[in-house]
Amino acid sequence: VHPPKRHLLKLFGRTVSEKRWSQSWGVSYAYSGATNPARAIPPASRLALLLETVNQWVVTAKEDQEASRPYNACLQNWYEPDDTIGRHADDEREMRPGMPIFSLSWGGTRRFVLRAKHNPTQEKTELFLQDGDLLVMGGTTQETHYHEVPKRRVT
Fold this sequence. Notes:
This is Fe2OG dioxygenase domain-containing protein. By secondary structure, this protein is mainly β. 12% of the residues lie in helices and 35% in strands. It has helices spanning 46-60, 141-144, and strands at 8-11, 14-17, 21-25, 29-31, 34-36, 38-39, 74-78, 85-88, 101-104, 110-116, 125-129, 134-137, 145-149. The chain is globular and about 40 Å long.
């Protein structure tokens, strides 16, 4: 169940409501001029299992040079048909540069778009993420690309 209210953000000096529902788990997350206050991760929940699985994968894949500092937080987003998140990169200061960002889809299929930051003529990459799909944005993805979940196309 998503939170009762949508979070407020600061975009270009204006206070606006997020165009999706979101909840931070484990550690509060600051982005777009606001802080998404964290709720505790319930023990033995699907979220706790997901974080445990991600941490095992990262250590096994040797992706994390600081394996003693496991993932301890999650930002959960709920997208209704008209909901969206605009083009952005996850580059907040509290995030470790180069660490993979994992995105697990639950629910309906949504379009996920990647675009090069410094080469606007480069073709965009579109993925249709379905229930259960795991997307990993690793390496320099946040430095080189923007990503977004655009509004659903009405046909």
